[in-house]
Amino acid sequence: MIPLPPEREDQLGVEAEARRRLSERPEPAELPSPRQTVGAVVVTFNDANHIALTLRGLVAEVAQVVVVDLGSKDRTRETVAERFLGVPVIPLPLEAGFGAAANEGSRRLDEPFLLLVHGDARLRPGALERLYGAVNDSRRRVACTGPRLVAPHGVVELSAGFRPTRWRTWRAAWTELVPRWKLLGPRRKPKRVAYFAPTVRTDVDWVSGAAMLLRRDAFDEVGGMDERYFLAYGDIDLCLRLRRAGWVVTYEPRARAIHLDHVDENPGSRRAARRRFARRHGALARHLFGHD
User: Tell me: domain 34-289, CATH 3.30.110.10, correct?
Assistant: First the structure.
C-alpha cells in the first residue's frame, strides 16, 4: 500500500474535522407558518373588478386580512362585504392617501409581520412563502422585502432600486435622452421595457409599496409610513428610513406579483411629494424612480 503524502493526510484530517462539526450543528428552527404570523393590509380604490381574486388568495395564506378603502365609487366595499364575511372593511376618504391607509390597517392587526398590498396587485402562488423566507433571514436584520412586479401583458415594472446619487441621476437622465438602442441602431431596439430586475435575491435601498412584507417591530420603530405622501415616494421614503435605522431591505425576484392597474395621482401632488422627498433625503429622483 502506497503511503499518502503528508500534505494529503493533513487535508483529509481537515475535511474529516469539518464534516464532524457540520454533523454537530443544530438543525435550524422551523419557521412558523405565515398562516399564523402574517397579517395583510389591502388598500383599495375602485378595485371591484379584481378585489375578489386578490382576497381569495390572501385569506387562505395569512392569519388575518384587513381592507382599507379610499373612497371607492364602484362596488369594491360591497364586493368584500358580500363575498368575504370575515374581512373587515375600513372606509377612509380618498384625501387620506395610501400611507394613512396602510398605517390604519396595521393598527388593526396584531401579527408580527405585515403584508402591505395595493388592491390592484395580486401575489402569484408561492410568492408569500418566498417573501417570508427572505424577511426571516436569521443572519441579517431584514425589515422589508418585495416581489417582482409584472404587468398583465408580461412587462417587468419598476419594483426596486437604490438611493439616488448624483452619478445615477445624471446617468439615468442621459439614458432617457439618448436610449441605448439609438446608439446601436434601430435593429437593436428592445421590444420590451425592463427596469432594474436582478434574478437573485438582492439587497436594495427600496422596494415598491404595491406589495411588500415587513417586520412589525421595524415598521413601528420608524413610525410607519409618512402620511404626508399621498402615494408617490411614500414607499421609498419608508424603506430609506428603515435603512437609516440599521435594517436591511431586500428584493426577492423569485416572488412574483401581477400589477393589474395603476392609480393616477394628481401631478401637483406628485411634485409636492418629490420636493418633500428631496428635502428629507437630499436627492431628486425624477429619472431614477420614474415619477414626474
Answer: no
